[in-house]
Amino acid sequence: MIPLAPVRIGPAVPIAPGVLSAIGKHPVDRPLRLGPEGFEGDQQADRRRHGGPEKAVHHYDAGHYPAWRDELGDLPRLAPGGFGENLSSGGLTESGVAVGDRFRLGAALVEVSQARQPCWKLNIHFAVPDMARRVQDSGRTGWYYRVIEPGLVAPGDGLALVARGAPGWTLDRLWRILYRDRLNRAELAEMAALEVLSESWRSLAQRRLDNAAVEDWTPRLQGSVVNP
Predict the structure, then answer these.
(1) pLDDT for res 227
(2) Which of 103, 147, 210, 221 is the most exposed place for a label (fewest CB within 10 A)?
(3) Contacts of 65 (CB under 8 A, 6+ apart)
C-alpha cells in the first residue's frame, strides 16, 4: 500500500485577467466520491484540455518538490499541491509508473491513462515565465488516471497496485518519444496502437507518423492571456 497525502480538490478561479484555472487545490478531510469525471467538488477551467474521463484524477510525486526548490528556490507554491494534483505521494515516479497500471484507491479502481502535458497556465501560477517548458524538459510532469470503478475514497486510503496493462510503457518512455526521440517511427507506431493509452495521445502519435513532423508546442507552452 502506497500512503497518500489528503485528497485535494478545488474550484476554477481567476489567476490573471481573463484567465481561469482550477490549479489551486485544497486538502479535504472527509470521504469523497470518485466518479468517471473525477472527485466530487473538483473542477477544471478548460474542459477541452483538462479533466474528462481520460484525465479524471491528477497525481504528482511529492518527491519532485525538493528538485524544483533546488532549481528555483523557495517559491511559495513549490510544495505538495503546487501543481494542482489531486493525489500526492512519495515513491511513485514517471520512471516506474506505466500506462495501464491499475490501482485500488479506497473503493474505487483507477488506471493510468497518460502523463500530463504542461501548459502555459503554470507560468502564471508560479510566476516563472518558462515554467511549462521547464516541467516538460524535466520529465517531472505527473500523470492522469481514468476511473474504471467509481467508489468512495476516504482519508487514510492509499494506493494498491493490482494490475499492469503495459509495464514496458512507462511514462518516462513516453516522455522520451514525445520530447526527445520525437520522430522515431517504430516507437510512434507502437504508441499509436497502445490501447491503454489515452485516445488523444494515440492520435498525437499517429499525426506525427502521417505528417513526418512534430506539432507546434508554442501555444501550449506560452499561450496568451489575451486569447487563452
Answers:
(1) 32
(2) 210
(3) 78, 79, 80, 82
